[in-house]
Specification:
By secondary structure, this protein is an alpha+beta fold. The chain is 14% helix and 32% strand. The chain contains four helices and 13 strands. The protein is globular.
Length: 180
């Protein structure tokens, strides 16, 4: 089971979207080199106000490119990096992965999936009505968050568009992703 990297994005300043890059460097225990959200402790502004000493479980944000195809069909135009993700993938069911899954990105980099991204109101500021497209309802009637997954860097390395993504599922019972 695997897919590929469709795009990589980073930004050294706080902003909703992140510009696409030719490559990014993942740094073990920190995140994307030069990205504002890199660090061992939380860098998300809201979370920092609550407790800046929390471990950063959101070092690398991944979104499946297929989401952009789905929202395009609903009349929205969203491109890689525009929802703030660092890595855009193709051919991989990110939302179906269990917590603890390892994703090998390219030749060296490895990230461990920590949970779901919680979509924020900035999504509707970016494009009015887009929030309804990235938050759906599950079969149980509860919210189903589709705006990507979060991870921490286990092994650093260079990641580029076109790189393969290999999936290594964790042993034991698989835990569904929850918001981190």
């Amino acid at each position: 089971m695997g897919g590929s990297v469709a795009a990589v994005s980073s930004n050294g300043a706080y902003s909703f979207s992140k510009p696409n890059r030719e490559s990014v460097v993942l740094v073990a225990g920190l995140g994307v080199e030069g990205d504002v959200h890199a660090g061992a402790t939380v860098k998300h502004r809201f979370r920092m106000r609550k407790d800046a000493s929390q471990p950063n479980l959101r070092q690398v944000h991944l979104i499946h490119e297929e989401l952009f195809d789905e929202v395009r069909a609903a009349g929205f135009e969203v491109a890689a990096g525009e929802l703030g993700e660092n890595v855009t993938t193709r051919g991989l069911d990110l939302l179906g992965l269990p917590a603890g899954t390892l994703l090998r990105l390219g030749d060296e980099a490895v990230v461990e999936v920590t949970g779901l991204r919680n979509p924020c109101a900035q999504i509707d500021t970016f494009q009015k009505g887009l929030m309804k497209q990235v938050v759906g309802r599950g079969e149980d009637g509860g919210p189903r968050f589709r705006s990507g997954i979060m991870s921490v860097v286990v092994a650093g390395g260079l990641v580029r568009p076109g790189d393969p993504v290999e999936v290594e599922l964790p042993a034991g019972p698989h835990l569904p992703l929850e918001i981190v």
